Structure formats: C-alpha cells, structure tokens
C-alpha cells in the first residue's frame, strides 16, 4: 500500500510507546500515511507515570524540522509537546520557513499521571504566538482551562472556552470532553462560522494513555488526505474510540490504546 500523504510530527518521545511520537507514528501509519519526526524531548516513563523529561536543544529541534522538510515536504504537520518558550520560538521560525498550511496543535501540558510537561513562560508564548500559526488546536478540558481561564463544568463552558481561543487567534478549535463526568463524551468543534458537538459512548477503562496524541495525529492524517477539517475530527474521534474499546490491557497503570484498530491485513498469516 502506497502512503496517501506525508506528515511531520513535532513532539516528545514516550519510552512506553503509548503516547507522544510513538503513538503519533503508529496512528499516521495505521491510517495509511508516511510519518516523519522532529523530537522535542525524551521522556522516561511507563504506564504508571513519568520518571524524567530530557529536553532536546531548541536549535536541534529547528534543524530536524527544516532539514527533514527540505527533502520531503510534508502535506501536514502535527505539533505535540513543546516544553519551553525557546522551543516554541524555534518551532515558529521553522514553520515560517517551510510554509505548510495544514498544522494541528495538541497543546500537551500535563501527562496522564499528573506530571507537568510545560513551563508557565512557554504557555504564554504558545497563547500569544503559536495559536495564530496553526489551523486547529485540540486541547482537553484542563488544557483549555489553562489557556482561557474558564472553569469548564459542562458543554456550555466548553463553547465559551472555545470562543475565547478563537479570540486569541485560533482558526478552529476542538475541545475534548473526556475529563467531564458524563455518561456520554462531548467533543466541541468550533470556529467563527460553525459549531458541532460530537457525542461518543464513554468506555469504562483505565487504558486511555495517549488518546490526545492519537486523536490529533488521526485528524492531521485524515485532513492531509483531503477530508474536510470537521469530517477529519469526526473520523478521528471514531478511530480513537475504536482504539480505546480494543485496548490491549498492557501495564499496571494507565495503559495504551490499540493503534492497530484500523489496519485490515489482506493476507492471512498462519
């Protein structure tokens, strides 16, 4: 099968394989596209938590992005963990040089186990400079609260926060509702002309590590292949739900989801 598009992933590495660059590559590949990477940090972690975070030098991150893209031009870019203001500034400079329009930002701030992955100065730079550069931002509820100052308790609060992100310069927003205590998960897609709420069944499982990384990479891949942004969000959410439902139950903490849920092997192996 020939890859349908080329995706550049700018994100941190997860040694346990459930989130970060590893989840991104698995997602892009299983949805039929070609994944390239610029690694922003190396994390030492497992399903029970993060032991340490080793940042990559900002200039080397910029070099990864520009050198890779000068040879294989990406059709779309997914941005994940950016741990410092220097890294965000270097990524912005890189984006200005390579000029790719389809950019999805997953503003990773806190790991599933609670470890903070970004400093306060970086959050301010992300709000003032990076949000304007991307086509879609996909915060979860804690991230949306940090970025907007809105306390989110329900769908109406999610819409209010999404509107504030638009006022900060975002073109499109998808706020993920998984953190709310509700029977159904509500994800809110919002821009100046459109509002769409995606409803999903809530699956009772602790194995949801990497869902945010996976969703943003799925949306990036589907969007790069010609789907509309709203349709890419809808299909990306369905992919993640399937991956949660069929999770392999690995590890003793927050286990990974099943990124292979979309792959149908044509050949039967004995």
In summary, what is this structure?
With 270 residues, the chain is of the alpha/beta class. The protein has helices spanning 20-30, 58-71, 85-98, 120-130, 141-148, 155-167, 211-224, 229-245; strands spanning 6-14, 34-46, 49-55, 76-79, 103-105, 136-137, 173-175, 184-190, 195-201. Helix 1 links the parallel strand 1 and strand 2 (34-46).
pLDDT < 50 stretches: none
Bin the helical content.
25-40%
Structural class: alpha/beta
Query: How far apart are the termini?
Result: 21 Å
Order of helices and strands: EHEEHEHEHEHHEEEHH
Shape: globular
> Could you state the CATH homologous superfamily?
Ribokinase
Count the beta strands.
Answer: 9
What would CATH call the class?
A: Alpha Beta
**Which architecture per CATH?**
3-Layer(aba) Sandwich
For the largest sheet, list the strands in their spatial order. Answer: 3-2-1-4-5-6
CATH fold group = UDP-N-acetylmuramoyl-L-alanine:D-glutamate ligase
State which percent range the strand residues make up: 15-25%
> What's the tally of helices?
8
Q: What number of domains?
A: 1
């Amino acid at each position: 099968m020939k890859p349908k598009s080329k995706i550049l992933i700018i994100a941190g590495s997860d040694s346990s394989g459930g989130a970060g660059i590893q989840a991104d590559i698995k997602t892009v590949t299983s949805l039929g596209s070609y994944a390239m990477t610029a690694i922003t940090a190396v994390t030492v972690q497992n399903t029970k938590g993060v032991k340490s975070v080793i940042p990559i030098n900002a200039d080397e991150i910029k070099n990864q992005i520009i050198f890779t893209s000068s040879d294989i031009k990406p059709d779309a870019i997914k941005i994940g963990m950016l741990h410092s203001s220097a890294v965000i500034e270097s990524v912005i400079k890189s984006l200005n040089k390579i000029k790719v329009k389809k950019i999805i930002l997953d503003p990773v701030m806190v790991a599933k186990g609670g470890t903070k992955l970004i400093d306060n100065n970086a959050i301010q730079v992300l709000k003032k400079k990076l949000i304007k550069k991307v086509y879609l931002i996909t915060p979860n509820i804690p991230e949306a609260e940090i970025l907007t100052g809105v306390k989110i308790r329900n769908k109406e609060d999610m819409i209010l926060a999404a509107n504030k992100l638009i006022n900060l310069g975002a073109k499109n927003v998808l706020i993920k509702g998984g953190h709310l205590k509700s029977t159904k998960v509500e994800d809110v897609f919002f821009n100046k002309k459109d509002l769409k709420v995606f409803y999903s069944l809530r699956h009772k499982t602790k194995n949801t590590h990497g869902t945010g990384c996976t969703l943003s990479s799925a949306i990036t891949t589907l969007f790069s292949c010609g789907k509309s942004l709203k349709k890419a969000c809808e299909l990306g959410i369905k992919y993640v739900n399937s991956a949660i439902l069929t999770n392999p139950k690995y590890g003793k903490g927050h286990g990974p989801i099943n990124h292979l849920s979309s792959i149908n092997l044509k050949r039967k192996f004995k």
